[in-house]
Amino acid sequence: MTKSITSCRATKKCFNCFVFLFILLTWIFPTCGFSKEMDPPRYGKNAFYSFPVGTVAFLPGIIDEADAKEFIQFCILPESGAYQLQKQVEYWFVVNHHLPRETGTFSYIGVSALSFLDRNVKKLDQPVSMFRNAGWSRLDDANFSNNNERRVGSEISPRDFFAFHKETKNLFDQDRQLGHPWHGNFTKTHSSFSERTYWDLGSILYGDLSTYGFDNEIFQNACTRVDGKLLRFQFTSKKNSNNPLIFRLNGTNRTGSYLKLFSPDHYNDFYRTFSLTYTED
User: Which of 20, 187, 214, 216 is the 20 to 30 Å CA partner of 3?
Assistant: First the structure.
């Protein structure tokens, strides 16, 4: 009996040590909000830019642009997958544009995000939001960009937004449909409009959401919001770039987002998709 009690105490002591060690490691190495298996968090811009060009990372704990530009901690996302993030007001991401052989060359990334809203949200005044950063141009409009960032709202629905990009073949018709000129040239000879079909996420609205990593019971028939982002950039040779290629997703009243990033023919055929679910814990 004494031997049995002693063994039990030893086992309990080992278990307590394990719990303490687990808590300690969790405190030292935060999970970055993900519950699915992922690459552990890393630190430093130099480390991030050592990953292959096109690598995408989530920036934990960041809720504004100024902090995102000075990020220290990052969590690498694989090329595709479904993940859970803890709910917060904003989510910031960074894409590796370090490619020394192309230093100074301009390219762009398109970010198309379809977000599912809380069930208590029944209607949005602006179900589609379109963003374009600085440096874009249009031959027909000298004031198209004015070298400033532009955010343009739209009264069209997500379904319309996807259909217009899938079916419309004329740039000026697209301007009229969207309600604002949005697509433009990221170089003198290349326009984002030529790759407009990549913006179509309509299949998600009509398909089985579980195939994209979402729970049909939670997300089916939820109000949706589309965020389209045109991000022009220059490849860099610096591993501590002060101008990282960052973007944000709004987390307010969202339960999840399907995120698609692409830059066909200009960024080594860059294409990534992520299914993100936002949880309270």
Answer: 20
